[in-house]
TrEMBL record, chains A, B:
Every PurM-like C-terminal domain range: 195-365
Keyword ATP-binding belongs to the record: yes
UniProt superkingdom: Eukaryota
GO CC list: cytoplasm
A Gene Ontology molecular function term of the record: ATP binding
Any one biological process term the GO annotation gives: selenocysteine biosynthetic process
Start and end residues of each PurM-like N-terminal domain: 72-169
Gene3D superfamilies noted in UniProt: PurM-like C-terminal domain, PurM-like, N-terminal domain
Record protein name field: Selenide, water dikinase
Record's keyword annotation contains Lyase: no
Keyword annotations from UniProtKB, A to Z: ATP-binding, Kinase, Nucleotide-binding, Selenium, Transferase
Length: 387, 387
């Protein structure tokens, strides 16, 4: 596997100019949906209610919702001894305006559910596509062609291939995939082993929903930027930072789970940092609580959230702001966490953080954000590199 | 595995009464989309054009389109010797008005791509759901709950389980699934071995698109039924017949492929009988042509197609009328075909037919409908059983 010809960082910094691709200058990809990225999930309560239809426990829908054993992927022991089918699917709508980067994000997001289980070898990907009915022939070919290229490039980065899929017409542009691995028992991390005294590690900053939405305000000239008195340049930089992070695979993060004996892990997506932390905490064998004490937030996104009504825009500070293709959240020993963070930063070129701890509890399992939580503003390394 | 509590035949004959489920009497499920079943596919030419983006041949999108090696599922040789990941996905929109039966059809349709390869053991299913944004809470719970039950019941019938999925909001009600099997080499039929002298067998009648659409005319009172002078009772019976056929698994058909040494097989869905026959013929090792001489058509559907403008409604007689969860199309020796047909009829309670033959050709591989083709009207056994 070699790195794709197109650099995510260069592409994110350059921005997508529709006219360079034969599209009208006012073409905006994200107008092809009313919902963005992982923010399109059916609410968790609704899903849980619907699943009550099944009283025999044989059906588990949307593992992301923490239904059943709270795993990100399903793990199916096979007829062939010692082997398991580990599998996940995700689909959603465009949330950045560059269809190539949307392809990379879509692939990274679906692979992430395998990586959250420590499974770093994906054996096959399928691509799911709903082609917006309103697209004309030119737009369709540009958008879908570039999307496919981005999806394929991240499959290459992941050392896997795309060998099937389904393409239908749909009112919104629908993007997704399926990732599958046939993994030996020891390739899969047991994610229910968190112990009191463990710390929590996070491998990507939060604030993606704020970044994507504030960039939309800018791009669609909604007046919101002026109304809140926001800085356009800072919004753009944050959007570029989050785009690069969403394209980045959690594959190294997955490999290191084994090396540093992670006790539990999940990836942070539609339910936000606290939502996924809570799912994971509830799935633990020991009666533990996850306490989040630091919120690593993409630079300037905390300021935007503060300026919004109630001072908690998109529920950023209460931890339920949606992320798309977010980082891994991991419980491990303090000693291992320090080494894990050092090594992932070396491999990926981006920082990770200890954001909390695992406590014994006599009450219910779950996750909370500490009242004394600290905001940690994550400045953009992609701009520092170039400036 | 035991048969589900709900009988498909009884349910199809009873019809779906929205008011029995707390829904408005004028609620029509198929109004939640502008496209029906496998008729929603992006046209084959468009797909093939888009795939030219990839010149390295590493990406195969939508195997149904006959891209690449023309298989219905992708077959991925694994790191674990002698094993393959066989995998397929499909999603589409409602085409019958009973959400429970829609769940059974959706599961049968996705499983069918495994069955077409002779793989009769599915190791896992994922469910894909787009919940129409316009549904209110009551309608959503009824529709999705019943859909899930139907999907699960057919997974049970297939001896497999649903262990994951994704649920998003979407303007149309989107229904689909993923089916995966980790299969030993000898569980998979080599589908490129058709020989001159073979005959073609079909295990379900065609005419699904005509039946579903004429029933829509009736149900939505479009005036088309009166305009064409159609018989309402016959339309209803045809719709019930095709509904039962769409719910029926091709699993026995798959198992018998091994017993009777099938040389080639595929399932008939969105591109119609001729479209899929043509894909399969082109994938053969030997230079052959598939000649279709008999069209087994659901009773009365040929009459409707004849009464429509140009006398070939929905391209029924030219073989490209879309089917959803259609039968298997198989090339095998004449002796084996006779035994195959006898045994599938015994197991499933529905007939299959020899519909054509495999010829050597000096021209291009492909499939044609013979100018002397015969129409065979397939009367409904589900009504005969009850009358």
């Amino acid at each position: 596997m070699s790195a794709p010809a197109i650099s995510v960082i260069e592409r994110a910094l350059a921005g997508f100019k529709p006219e360079d691709h034969g599209l009208p200058a006012d073409f905006i990809l994200t107008k092809l949906t009313a919902m963005k990225g992982c923010g399109c999930k059916v609410p968790r309560e609704v899903l849980l209610e619907l699943l009550k239809t099944f009283d025999d426990g044989s059906m588990v829908i949307d593992n992301d919702a923490g239904v059943g054993i709270g795993l990100d992927s399903c793990v199916v022991p096979l007829r062939h001894k010692g082997l398991n089918l580990v599998q996940t699917t995700d689909f959603f709508y465009p949330l950045v305006d560059d269809p190539y980067l949307m392809g990379r994000i879509t692939a990274a997001n679906v692979l992430s559910d395998l990586y959250a289980m420590g499974v770093s070898e994906c054996d096959n990907m399928l691509m799911l596509l709903g082609v917006a009915v309103e697209l004309d022939g030119v737009a369709r070919d540009v958008i879908i062609g570039q999307f496919m290229q981005g999806f394929k490039d991240n499959a290459d980065m992941a050392g896997t291939k795309v060998r099937g899929g389904q393409t239908v017409r749909c009112p919104w542009l629908l993007l997704g995939g399926v990732a599958s691995s046939v993994a030996a028992d020891d390739e899969i991390i047991r994610v229910d082993q968190a112990k009191p005294g463990d710390v929590l590690v996070l491998t990507k900053p939060i604030g993606g929903q704020v970044a994507v939405n504030s960039y939309e305000w800018l791009k669609k000239k909604t007046g919101r930027v002026e109304e809140l008195g926001l800085d356009e340049c800072k919004i753009l930089k944050a959007f570029q930072q989050v785009t690069v992070q969403m394209c980045r695979l959690n594959r190294n993060a997955a490999k290191l789970l084994h090396k540093y004996q992670a006790h539990a892990s999940t990836d942070v997506t539609g339910f936000g940092l606290l939502g996924h932390a809570d799912n994971l905490a509830r799935a633990q064998k020991e009666q533990v609580q996850f306490v989040i004490e630091h919120l690593p937030i993409i630079e300037y996104m905390d300021e935007i959230a503060t300026k919004m009504p109630n001072g908690n825009g998109f529920n950023l500070f209460t931890g339920t702001s949606a992320e798309t293709s977010g980082g891994l959240l991991i419980a491990m020993s303090l000693e291992n966490a320090a080494e894990y963070i050092r090594e992932i930063e070396m491999l990926d070129g981006f920082p990770a953080w200890i954001i909390g701890r695992v406590e014994a509890t006599s009450g219910n399992r779950g996750a909370v954000i500490s009242p004394d939580r600290q905001i940690h503003s994550v400045s953009s390394s992609i701009h520092q590199q170039l400036n």
